[in-house]
Design a protein that fits this description.
3 strands; elongated; 88 residues; 19% strand; alpha+beta
């Protein structure tokens, strides 16, 4: 059964089925959340759903390196990256 709740202006979907781990995803639009929920529930029921594996980061440095690989499309300088990652 899917549960959709509004959180921080977004819609969080949680699906819990028998003998299957809880699946959660967040959307900015309610229609997208409902569509994903119904599709994912069906995939779980028929055995097609494969949850994405958790990334295997060994250290904070690995996590930061992954962040830079994914999000540094603007070719930011070292200072700009440090500023974005630092606590304000």
């Amino acid at each position: 059964m899917a549960t959709i709740r509004k959180r921080n202006g977004c819609y969080q979907v949680q699906i819990g089925k028998d003998r299957h781990p809880l699946v959660t995803k967040t959307f900015s639009r309610l229609t997208d959340a409902k569509r994903w929920a119904s599709t994912t529930e069906y995939e779980i029921e028929v055995g097609l759903f494969k949850p994405s594996p958790a990334p295997d980061f060994l250290s904070i440095g690995d996590l930061i390196g992954h962040y830079l690989l994914i999000n540094n499309k603007e070719n930011l300088s070292g200072f700009e990256i440090y500023y974005r990652l630092s606590w304000h």
